[in-house]
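Entry 0007
Protein: SMP domain-containing protein
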Amino acid sequence: MRSSKDGATISNVSVEEHFSVSQSTSSGQFVGSTEQFSTAAEALVGRSTTLTEALKAAAINVGHKPVETTDVAAIKEVETRATGGEGGGGVTTVAKAAVARNERTEKKDEKTKLRDVMAEIDVKVTRDRAVTREDAEAAVQAELNHSPFKHIIPGGVAESVSAAYKLNRSPSMSSL
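Output (structure tokens):
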């Protein structure tokens, strides 16, 4: 269970069949659960379902959007897990620099996009492995903890990692 910036508590993150996130306020009042079905699975069909492939799927799904701190948080979680904690100088560093640059850039069309950051993933992340449930839940939690609206980005990093886990768990889903 984790507290968000506005005092709400985020708990029960599950990626089994769909996203289910329960939230309550700091006073303990239950806000309710939010369910989001995966739209990222389609981008992963026919692809390897490794952590870096999930990041590539996010670039396919929402690569046109400027990189934000929510993306950096989820990317960092995924990259750390893919490399076994041997990060440093990887895609997370590129994403952080992109966010800093985007904050100084006024025009939306001049901002660094998620697809630009992910273009270097094969060079920046040299180790990889299949996505697990723990990876998916950690990516969702990281994105939720850094989202000003307390939701994940549809088709984004967390959803793509969760879709990869589901495909790993149920290969029969690959006929989507």
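Curator remark: Residues 38-175 form one domain. Strands lie at 2-3, 9-14, 19-24, 30-36.
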